[in-house]
């Protein structure tokens, strides 16, 4: 029986970052991971592989659509799917090995196997029991099932199967117009698949700024993705092809679509199977999340971070919670600012947001001003043939303090961080507007939107 200051269960972005930080703070640390490799959902079957395929497929699209305009002749683009998947696997391998290296460097013990909390301060992995002053639950999430849709990861796939299809399908029905559905739907659309997204609600990407939602849908439709909105999927029937049946919410009428592949992307749920939480009395929410407050559960010495607890299911949120909990365990004041957690959708164009939406501000009855700037008027965007989209900044009507940013357009996922930093420092829109921005950059669109919160943008 080995004894540790901290045992973290789960080696995803929450768990592995927490483990490294604990070790850096001088705590004797182990991380339990049941997968063959470290890195969790994100590195193995999530963020990283999906971005590898998004980038590769975007290159295909760029070559086929913009090269000729820019005077580059290619003689036609072909896709070697097996090689593209190989590229994806190589990217995963290099990332997960990187975490193994960091564990060795920081002297974090990797306890290989599935962990169970068998008592307060006690974690069992296989036949071995270890003691720990602190246990951190970082077990992440899994795909939420949908009644009538049986995932086989071959023809009816979750995101995991969609990242490893044997061939590029002729047609695909995506159930759910959330982040996974639109990112992976985009990958296959660009590779030539006929993609139809069936969404329960009337808008895509629930919770996003409504103006961004509308523009985003228009742009995806322009790329050829079809949408069936306000439709509740009833089931998928497996024959030679797949039949996806749905009911329209507005009139209860029923219809179906035949397709080669179905991607189920209707959300993820916390993963706590076999963890023994009942036995030690850890409190859960009605949605199966482990309850936490600043990372503390109701049981002394048991902490929680990442997808398995409340809040957005995002890798960087899990990482930040991992660092905060490590610092709290070490006696410091670990803290996460939940008001400034960016969200990015890595489609083309990218979509990024932070802070409050206009809808939330209206709901709160808060007076605000909105400054908007279209990429159409940005010199760099014109040069790069990526003029779709806009930057919208929201600021308090009286104090001018930045309250939110919503960007759809080139490099939105990078641009958003200027506003994150500004918001962390309590900056005003004028602070951003008065900061010199290099020309010609996409970032100038952010400055122009900040100017538009005041007297007006220069270039619109
Ligand atoms: P996880 O990454 O799920 O890791 C938990 C780990 O714990 C797993 O490896 C699991 O095997 C292990 N585990 C569970 N139970 C036990 C046990 N009892 N014993 C031992 N080990 C156990 N987020 C972003 O921010 N950006 C993105 O671009 C992005 N893209 C995504 C794309 C896809 C297709 C998917 C599915 C998700 C994506 N996400 C993205 C979400 C992101 O992957 C998660 O938010 C993130 O992985 C959560 O980290 P975590 O550490 O909480 O959990
Ligand atoms: P999601 O919650 O983003 O979207 C699910 C969508 O499915 C919603 O629009 C919902 O209305 C719809 N839906 C639910 N039931 C339905 C039904 N019966 N029929 C039709 N539509 C239905 O979930 P998603 O896309 O599965 O992603 C899971 C998590 O992974 C998200 O929380 C997200 O944060 C994370 N993720 C993050 C990424 C990023 O940051 N770029 C990329 C991919 C995933």
UniProtKB/TrEMBL annotation:
Disulfide bonds join 42-47. Binds 1 FAD per subunit. Residues 341-450 form the Pyridine nucleotide-disulphide oxidoreductase dimerisation domain. The active site is at residue 439. GO terms for biological process: 2-oxoglutarate metabolic process. Its EC number is 1.8.1.4. GO terms for molecular function: dihydrolipoyl dehydrogenase (NADH) activity; flavin adenine dinucleotide binding. It catalyses: N(6)-[(R)-dihydrolipoyl]-L-lysyl-[protein] + NAD(+) = N(6)-[(R)-lipoyl]-L-lysyl-[protein] + NADH + H(+). Keywords: Disulfide bond, FAD, Flavoprotein, NAD, Nucleotide-binding, Oxidoreductase, Redox-active center. The keyword Nucleotide-binding applies. NAD(+) binds at residues 176-183, 199, 267. GO terms for cellular component: cytoplasm. FAD binds at residues 51, 115, 139-141, 307, 313-316. Coiled coil: none annotated. Gene3D superfamilies: 3.30.390.30, FAD/NAD(P)-binding domain. Residues 4-322 form the FAD/NAD(P)-binding domain. Belongs to the class-I pyridine nucleotide-disulfide oxidoreductase family. PANTHER family: DIHYDROLIPOYL DEHYDROGENASE, MITOCHONDRIAL (PTHR22912:SF151), DISULFIDE OXIDOREDUCTASE (PTHR22912). The active site is a redox-active disulfide bond. This is Dihydrolipoyl dehydrogenase. The gene is lpdA.
């Amino acid at each position: 029986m080995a004894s540790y200051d901290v045992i973290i269960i789960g080696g995803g972005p929450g768990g592995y970052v927490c483990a490294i930080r604990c070790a850096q703070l001088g705590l004797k640390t182990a991380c339990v991971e049941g997968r063959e490799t470290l890195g969790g959902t994100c590195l193995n079957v999530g963020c990283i592989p999906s971005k590898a395929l998004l980038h590769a497929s975007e290159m295909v699209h760029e070559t086929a659509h913009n090269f000729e305009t820019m005077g580059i002749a290619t003689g036609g683009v072909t896709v070697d799917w097996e090689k593209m998947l190989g590229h994806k696997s190589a990217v995963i391998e290099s990332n997960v090995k990187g975490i193994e290296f960091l564990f060795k460097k920081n002297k974090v013990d990797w306890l290989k196997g599935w962990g169970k909390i068998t008592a307060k301060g006690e974690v069992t992995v296989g036949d071995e029991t270890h003691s720990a002053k602190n246990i951190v639950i970082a077990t992440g999430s899994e795909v939420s099932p949908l009644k009538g849709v049986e995932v086989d990861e071959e023809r009816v796939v979750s995101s995991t199967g969609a990242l490893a299809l044997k061939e590029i399908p002729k047609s695909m029905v995506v159930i759910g117009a959330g982040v996974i559905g639109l990112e992976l739907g985009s990958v296959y659309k660009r590779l030539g698949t006929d993609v139809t997204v069936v969404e329960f609600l009337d808008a895509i990407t629930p919770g996003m700024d409504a103006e961004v939602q509308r523009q985003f849908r228009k742009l995806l439709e322009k790329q050829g993705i079809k949408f069936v909105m306000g439709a509740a999927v009833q089931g998928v029937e497996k024959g030679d092809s797949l039949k996806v049946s749905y009911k329209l919410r507005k009139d209860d009428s029923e219809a179906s679509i035949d397709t080669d592949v179905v991607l189920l992307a209707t959300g993820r749920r916390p993963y706590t199977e076999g963890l023994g939480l009942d036995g030690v009395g850890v409190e859960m929410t009605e949605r199966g999340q482990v309850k936490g407050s600043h990372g503390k559960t109701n049981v002394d010495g048991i902490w929680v971070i990442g997808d398995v607890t409340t809040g957005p299911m995002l890798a960087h949120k899990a990482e930040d919670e991992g660092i905060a909990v490590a610092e709290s365990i070490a006696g410091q004041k670990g803290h996460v600012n939940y008001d400034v957690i960016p969200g990015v959708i890595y489609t083309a164009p990218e979509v990024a947001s932070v802070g409050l939406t206009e809808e939330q501000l209206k709901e709160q009855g808060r007076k605000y001003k909105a400054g908007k700037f279209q990429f159409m008027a940005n010199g760099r965007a014109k040069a790069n043939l990526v003029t779709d989209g806009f930057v919208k900044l929201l600021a308090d009507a009286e104090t001018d303090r930045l309250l939110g940013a919503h960007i759809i357009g080139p490099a939105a996922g990078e641009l958003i961080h200027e506003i994150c930093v500004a918001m962390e420092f309590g900056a005003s829109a004028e602070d951003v507007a008065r900061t010199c921005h290099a020309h010609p950059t996409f970032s100038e669109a952010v400055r122009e939107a900040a100017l538009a919160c005041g007297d007006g943008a220069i270039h619109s």
